[in-house]
Amino acid sequence: MERSVNCGGNDLNLEATELRLGLPGSDEHEKQSSPSVRTSNKRASPEVAEESSSLSVSDARNGDQDSAPPAKAQVVGWPPIRSYRRNSFQQKKTEADGAGAGMYVKVSMDGAPYLRKVDLKVYKSYPELLKALESMFKLTIGEYSEREGYNVSEFVPTYEDKDGDWMLVGDVPWDMFISTCKRLRIMKGSEARGLGCL
Amino acid sequence: MEFQAPYPDQVLENVLENVLQFLTSRRDRNAASLVCKSWYRVEALTRSELFIGNCYSVSPKRATARFSRVRAVAIKGRPRFADFNLMPPEWGAHFAPWVAALGSAYPWLEKVYLKRMSVTDEDLKHLAEYFPYFKELVLVCCDGFGTRGLAVIAKKCRQLRVLDLIESEVAESDMDWIGEFPESGITCLESLIFDCVESPINFEALERLVIRSPSLKKLRLNRFVSIGQLYRLMVRAPQLTHLGTGSFSLPEGVAHGDQEPDYESAFAACKSLVCLSGFREITLDYLSAIYAVCANLTSLNLSYANINAEQLKTVIFHCHKLQTFWVLDSICDEGLQAAAATCKDLRELRVFPIDAREDSEGPVSDVGLQAISEGCRKLQSILYFCQHMTNAAVVAMSNNCPDLEVFRLCIMGRHRPDHVTGEPMDEGFGAIVKNCKKLTRLAVSGLLTDQAFSYIGRYGKLVRTLSVAFAGDSDLGLKYVLEGCPRLQKLEIRDSPFGDAALRSGLHHYYNMRFLWMSSCRLSPQGCCEIARALPRLVVEVIRDDGNVIRGDCEEHIDDNFDILYMYRSLERPRDDAPSFVTILH
User: Fold this and answer.
1) Alpha helices, DSSP H, located in B270-308
2) ipTM score of complex
3) Binary contact (A92, B281; C-beta < 8 A)
4) Which Pfam families match (chain B) (predicted)?
5) Beta-carbon count within 10 A of B56 CB
6) pLDDT tens digits, residue range B345-382?
7) Contact criterion met (CB below 8 Å) for B432 and B458
8) Nearest CA of chain B to the CA of A181: how many Å?
9) How far is B151 from chain A (nearest CA, A)?
């Protein structure tokens, strides 16, 4: 990093010999509302290294704002948590996301040549899921009623639960459904009559 | 043969030897050894516990030459900031040269304690071979070894009482190390801690081991032990005083059954249990099993359990005797208030962030800190991660908790001011150093000007360890500290605007310190060279954190910038095991 040393003036231009991590040519001094620290263009953690160059400027304007900024490039080693501890939660998050029988589940439709897969975690309720299935398979499922199931529909959504039984989609609370659902099957209405009117 | 009366000096030395046997504190011993040569000699003969605070400050040869009757050795290696990936790995702190020297000097060695050292399987093998009376191995924040090394220890150290692996990285292999403990006969095992081992273990072998270990008091399991397995161990070892529960959930794929063991009675049977930890993958349904032991607990570590305030309350309300409490900030301020209301005897609190990012939510704040300060007046040590803090809460703690010795506050967003007043956090930390007269360790954060450091220099007369990050305005900040804190031993600074002038101001003190770490500050190669030349007994390491070599030396010009300065006093010539990314200035 080439910089000229300016020996004149009131203060020594320590910039010439100072240690910092900055991209060559980048020379921003971020002045914050407080007359203090010159924030360095800190190298981001390896995961976001590619984005660091573009984010580093906005990165510097941090802290004072209470409003949530878009996810910033993280500074290496900050906050000072040992990676063992950090990883045990990231691991748990992904485990939690993937755990349980109802994440990506296969969806088969009677008459269709191949299966699809849906991520149940993406939906918050039955109507959302059913709408998605309707658009995925280009069909109408209609509305669920507790007493009559999907009586008026040509197609009826069913699922296989943890015990291996085929159940009607909608009978149990949503949270229980996504934790017990192993796969989905969209049955032809005529076949499904047997399920709905027990 | 003529009787030779012992001359007076000899008598004195014998008397001294008998007296000094009882002196245990190493600081007292250090002082005693400076009285005169006679005392130096006798002290060296009677020191049985050797503590090396920096493995590079003295050579194994010199240490073993001076102290000839050592039974227990403690060695610390890497600087603490290396834990946070600020430095490339392979920096050093190898145990190998030490184990070789210890092997020839102390064949009767019983205990080894290592912190932040690189220990290989080969080193562990040597440990097992050289020391037939070996009893205790404690590895804290170490790495470089794996289950193969552990297997050798288990197999060969027949008198092993303590095998504690704490926050260490253990390389996985297919070696069943638990199975290597002798299969028959009673063991002398008192403590087995392996909660940091990230690989499954042979549970049946562990169960058999526990059955054969009637002296076992401390058992901390890793997350590969399910709650059902925990139950089986607990019923075999109701004498446990320290328990790490492992996962505290059922193994994957197993559903809650009807025939679940009576976990509650297993806990209730452990009448001596005082320290509880683990809960690595907690299933909340089971938390109530521990209620029976809460009243006796002095230490509770829930820092791997993602529980909320309500869930915490069910537990903490029973914990009247709690002195040490580690927890996640998922319990929110409300959870801390509950702890403050019950745990009147609390001495140490650590609140870890479940989401350790700068812009995370921050469920705990000044409210929680204030509550703790009001409820837990005997507090001695606190580590607190948060996003929002006020000077008022920190000041309150300084007033309410006069026994504080360790105050470590980490406001995760860098340069964050007091979130109510918008002021820097100077006054809060100032109050801590001023009012907490016993303070020896301090970590600062948030928006801090040189004023904060002025306070530290003025009032922090007992401070030994200081951690600084993203703080200060100018060289003055560091100057205040180096000139004002006579007891300062360990100083670690990152990303703060302190330069060569500030570094120079500590010349009078660096020989009294264990180390100084400065990374991403405003130092120049010339400034560091100056220090190296002025203080020949100081090892001045400069390091590039990208792992590349630094070109040049102090005689000529040093071309490259570097990121880290790490310097420490040493009786030896600079180490010869430095990797290429480390340059030692002279």
Assistant:
1) 291-294
2) 0.89
3) yes
4) F-box_5, Transp_inhibit
5) 21
6) 999 999 999 999 888 888 999 999 999 999 999 999 99
7) no
8) 14
9) 23
